[in-house]
Amino acid sequence: MSENSVENIVLFSGSSHPALANAVAKRLGVTISESIHDCFSNGERRIELQANVRRRHVYIFQTGTQSKTDSINDYLMELILMISAAKWSDAKTITVILPHFPYARQDKKDRSRTPISARTVANLIEAAGATRVVTMDLHSSQIQGFFNIPVDKKLKAIIETDCYKGKRWFPAFEDNFEDKEDVDPDLEDYFYDKLNSVKDKNLSVQYILAIQKG
Predict the structure, then answer these.
(1) Which residue ranges form the domains of the chain, and what is each CATH number?
(2) Cβ contact 41:51 at 8 Å
(3) 143-164, pLDDT tens digit by residue?
(4) Between 86 and 212, whose confidence is greater?
């Protein structure tokens, strides 16, 4: 079995968004390995990875969100324990797929005697044993500098607006589009700023989506 083959990859999902993890796994053509996520009677999280990870490349899918039953802190602690379990089971690499980075808005000291919470989260993830993090649309790019491991920040080129009349797909780099007068001027500026940002980074993005709310 080649070191970098698909057979040498193990994908686990936390309990924050299993439907999204399954959709990603299906798109990639891989299977999510079994793991146990539950709680002891005192509320402490219990994690058990039920696949062999020794000298294999582990990917852990979790997102910093909340649900009706669990908080962001619950899912963050679950992630930390999953990383630790993989590390102490001798995983070769541990990549954390974290679409929504928890505490990302707290990326600086806005008052005296307050923490830089995003940095603390970064320290926790790294100390637990992660070797790489993949996330999306960080509140501030400086969060990447809180880590001493590689961090891949992906851009989601989606614009939500209640200004545009109707729903429509736009070719990503088209300089002019129909019904331009239906777009609020502030949105138009934001729209083109996004396009220019994507262009500058030489990213391959096919479409920008404007969505009418309500």
Answers:
(1) 6-154 (3.40.50.2020), 158-212 (no CATH)
(2) no
(3) 888 999 999 887 655 444 433 4
(4) 86
